[in-house]
What we know:
Structural class: mainly alpha
Number of strands: 2
Strand content: under 5%
Distance between the termini: 33 Å
Helix content: 55-70%
Number of domains: 1
Order of helices and strands: HHHHHHEEHHHHH
Largest sheet: 2 strands, antiparallel
Radius of gyration: 19 Å
Amino acid sequence: MFDFYIIKILFLSALAFAFAVLWTPLLTHYLYKYKLGKKIRANGATPIFTKLHEHKNNTPTMGGILVWLTVLILAVVFYYLPKIFQSDFLSQLNFLSRSQTLLPLGVLVATALIGLADDWLDVSGRGILHGGGLKVSHRLLIYTLIAAVGAWWFYFKLDWDVFHVPFSGDYQMSWPYLLVFIFVLVATAFSVNETDGLDGLAGGILLICFAAYAVIAFSVGKYDLAAFCGVISGALLAFLWFNINPARFFMGDTGAMSLGITLGVIAMLTNTALILPLIGL
């Protein structure tokens, strides 16, 4: 049975990569057509920064769509195909489950849509942050509320309040677990977002992290979660293919914030939040 799960994870990862590569030209066509490019604003106080990044001016900044939409499409396809064709084989490829992947997928899509709106405000020059986009305080509030919903789901729906400390053991935390959960998700999201904007950096770090968590999830018997991480890894590999220098696009908040907060959810699901910083180094 383990062999089947390994094959399933590798197959879905490869499929995500191939599918993402195939539809990337369509995405980049529309990103460039509608000039959804990153604006490097001249700033007399930071001339060196402006000089180093001026070649990125007008490079599209919503490339994260490639990752989360690929994951969403494959999740929906392999959830409904077995129901349509009544196929046991196809049902084995489904990786959407209430206990393992419903929450991370929901968080991924919800935060991706918020990030997409923020990216659009930024490139269109709307909003009040640096000429476009949401204020940092508003973003912090929104993502904290989403993390709070995830914490509620963990605590009340999954009955989960145990936090693992390496080399020490598990600790039952009761309600303070909610605060820890929120902190892990928000901190991870904003940390990942800081790495976006440099060719291959955010995508490379996230690829390493999600690939590592595919292995971790598999090792603790969460096979659907491992497949979910594998699908994200495959999509990220395709993203990197087009993000290395010279980058065709950047991840944007729709990718960096959503994948960061999803990574935090997965770290909590596998009870490995304290080793997440080590994986991301």
